[in-house]
């Protein structure tokens, strides 16, 4: 059985082309839920008007599909809660973005 963590590990290879950080480091992946061989992924974007939204969502989908045992995946786009780099990003990503709390 595939775990949520295995899918999340696959998603850690997807880089936001504008930020040059991964979607997991940025905290853009809000949730991953695996049911059998299907993955449901809730994600957001750095801004609602993100010009690379379709490409980024497609990259997340492709990456999830590369996870051993996953036969189907669906990427749900949400803006609730709004992405906040101070809240959602990893410490390393905050450092790269110049956010020092």
What is the residue-averaged pLDDT?
A: 95
Order of helices and strands: HEEHEEHEHH
The global form is globular
What share of the residues does DSSP label as strand, in percent? 15-25%
What is the β-strand count?
5
Rg, rounded, reads: 13 Å
Helix share, percent? 25-40%
Q: Tell me the CATH topology.
A: GMP Synthetase, Chain A, domain 3
The CATH first-level class comes to Alpha Beta
Q: At the fourth CATH level, what is the homologous superfamily?
A: Fe-S cluster assembly (FSCA)
Poorly predicted sequence stretches spanning 5 or more consecutive residues: none
Largest sheet: 3 strands, mixed
Going across the biggest sheet, name each strand in turn: 3-4-5
Assembly state: single chain
- The CATH level-2 architecture is identified as 2-Layer Sandwich
Distance between the termini: 39 Å
Number of helices: 5
In terms of topology, how is this protein built?
Elements: H1 4-11, E1 15-16, E2 21-22, H2 23-26, E3 29-35, E4 38-43, H3 53-65, E5 72-77, H4 85-88, H5 91-96
Parallel strand pairs: 4-5
Antiparallel strand pairs: 1-2, 3-4
Throw out a few tags for this protein:
alpha+beta; GMP Synthetase, Chain A, domain 3; three-stranded mixed beta sheet; 35% helix
What does this 3D model show about the protein?
- It is a single chain.
- This protein is an alpha+beta fold.
- It has one domain (4-94): 2-Layer Sandwich (GMP Synthetase, Chain A, domain 3), CATH 3.30.300.130.
- Helix content is 35%, strand content 23%.
- The chain has 5 helices and 5 strands.
- The chain has helices at 4-11, 23-26, 53-65, 85-88, 91-96; strands spanning 15-16, 21-22, 29-35, 38-43, 72-77.
- The strands form 2 sheets. The chain has a 3-stranded mixed sheet. Strands 1-2 form a two-stranded antiparallel ribbon.
- The longest helix has 13 residues, at 53-65.
- The relative contact order is 0.23.
């Amino acid at each position: 059985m595939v775990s949520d963590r295995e899918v999340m590990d696959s998603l850690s290879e997807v880089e936001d082309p504008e930020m040059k950080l991964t979607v997991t480091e940025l905290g853009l992946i809000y949730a991953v839920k695996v049911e059998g061989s299907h993955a449901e992924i809730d994600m957001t974007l750095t801004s609602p008007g993100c010009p690379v939204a379709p490409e980024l969502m497609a990259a997340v989908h492709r990456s999830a599909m590369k996870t051993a045992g996953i036969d189907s995946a669906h990427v749900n786009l949400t803006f609730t809660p709004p992405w906040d780099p101070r809240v959602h990003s990893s410490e390393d990503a905050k450092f790269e973005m110049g956010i020092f709390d």
